[in-house]
């Protein structure tokens, strides 16, 4: 599978950019999946639901299925967080996987950056960041796109991965 990442600091616009890219790229007839790294605990389940009851009873995995979708929840129960490469093996084949977060992984990435956050750019010290999508002009040694120029960013990513 072809991979491309969107990285950046908190509130840099990563999720909005990924959302727009999924819409843009699937609109071109390609299949896309996403992986989102969360630095905090999260839960896709709700207390009181049967699946939640299964997990709290001690199940390692709970697969919830309906006619519209299915979801597999895996409890780590103190085990180490799986590596990105291990998680990618669980995805069904698609044309492109967009990865949000995972700043330190070595796959190619675009950095989302907003001036108002006050965070420094990651790109100057990271060769895996191939371009920056920013809300202000930048002078860098790699392409810089307007943060909202989804079409141009999608063109760049698809060229980079050979699609």
Which tags fit this structure?
alpha/beta; two-stranded antiparallel ribbon; 24% helix; 163 residues; Rossmann fold
CATH class descriptor name = Alpha Beta
The percent of residues in helical segments reads: 10-25%
- Rg value: 18 Å
Major sheet characteristics: 6 strands, parallel
What structural category do the secondary elements indicate? alpha/beta
Q: What coarse outline follows from CA principal-axis ratios?
A: globular
Strand content: 15-25%
Helix count equals 4
Q: What CATH architecture label applies?
A: 3-Layer(aba) Sandwich
Order of helices and strands: EHEHEEHEEEEH
The average pLDDT is: 94
Secondary structure layout:
Elements: E1 2-7, H1 14-27, E2 32-36, H2 50-57, E3 61-65, E4 70-74, H3 84-88, E5 96-100, E6 109-113, E7 129-134, E8 144-146, H4 150-161
Helix pairs in contact: 1-4
Task: Walk me through what this model shows.
The chain is an alpha/beta fold and 163 residues long. The chain has one domain (2-41, 80-161): P-loop containing nucleotide triphosphate hydrolases (Rossmann fold, 3-Layer(aba) Sandwich), CATH 3.40.50.300. Helices cover 24% and strands 25% of the residues. The chain has four helices and eight strands. It has helices at residues 14-27, 50-57, 84-88, 150-161; strands spanning 2-7, 32-36, 61-65, 70-74, 96-100, 109-113, 129-134, 144-146. The chain has a six-stranded parallel β-sheet with strand order 2-5-1-6-7-8, with helices on one face. Strands 3-4 form a two-stranded antiparallel ribbon. A hairpin with a 4-residue loop joins strand 3 and strand 4 (70-74). Helix 1 (14-27) crosses helix 4. The longest helix has 14 residues, at 14-27. The mean pLDDT is 94.
